[in-house]
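[Q] Does anyone have a clean structure-token version of this?
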Amino acid sequence: MTTPQPSNVKVVIADDHKLFRKGILELVNDFEGFTVVWEAEHGKDLVNKLSPENLPEIILLDISMPVMDGYQTAEWLTKHYPEIKVLALSMHNDDNSILRMLRCGVNGYILKNTDPSELEKALRTLETDGTYYSSRVAELAIKCLHHKKKEVHPDLSEREIEFLKLACTELPYKSFAPLLNIHPRVVESTRENLFKKLEVESRVGLVIYAIKNGIFKIE
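[A] Here you go.
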């Protein structure tokens, strides 16, 4: 059975390297159902060009840009246009850069040297599922949550324990699905089940429970 393709997803590219932008523009326009509608040289340029009349569905966002970098831009977009999906497309492969962008609220992260097929997969997954992280990024995020001593919590499932660990980070809930390899709706149901099971009413309550019960340790 053939997966239905998106009708016409509007994409914007924010990157200070003109040649790279043009290459990505041609690549994305060759993907069925995706169209680059405009480009931006840096975050400030992107912010100035955005308006309710020309909002894209997806923004491909570089990190190292002058005037307003990718971190600042991602935070601004998360605050002002949370409905826009942001895919970080960067040369930065270090742990700090990746985790910092995740904390800024991006919906996905892939490297600039990735194969074009992964870029297409990322765009399609973003449109259908809302998030996409490469295996490198997912492994990094999960690695940061594991601790040397394994605690036993018979009343909680393995998924619930991993969910609680993620809740103790600054990552938004929307990042949990690809990291736990579950559907976004399962993120919501897991959160609600934990609220009831642990008798808490907020993420703060989840964090307090995780710390008190040794699920998450402050280094």
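[Q] Thanks! Anything notable?
[A] Residues 145-212 form a domain with the Arc Repressor Mutant, subunit A fold (CATH 1.10.10.10).
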